[in-house]
Known about the structure:
Elements: H1 2-7, H2 11-50, H3 70-77, H4 82-104, H5 106-117
Amino acid sequence: MLRRIAAEGSGMDALAARTEALWTDVARALVPIIGQRGMSALYERALHLAARQHHWLAQALGLDGEPAVFSSLARVASEHAVDDAIAAIATLFETFDHLLVTLIGASLTERLLQPIWDVPSAGTTRQDTAR
Length: 131
């Protein structure tokens, strides 16, 4: 989806806005299940882990005890080249997805996030690693 935006030539502003909108949709789907604090903790953990590969993602983490917000990610991403931003954001989404699967299982994760990811149902399936 993000590559499609980049291919359309919409620019980093559109990519950053879509990234923020996707994360807002994820939060809207998950907060009723895991709560706001759970969503924040999971998002911040995913940011921390994804920053190992894309160091600049650490700039989107909350400062001085403030929770990380999606607008920070969009702002930081907009300061990088499109390909770098897409790679980092994809890593963040994949990391978040993996953490969520570990927490609530693959089946529930897929049911909650499938409409957001807009991935064809014929895609690869995930194993439920929670026991």
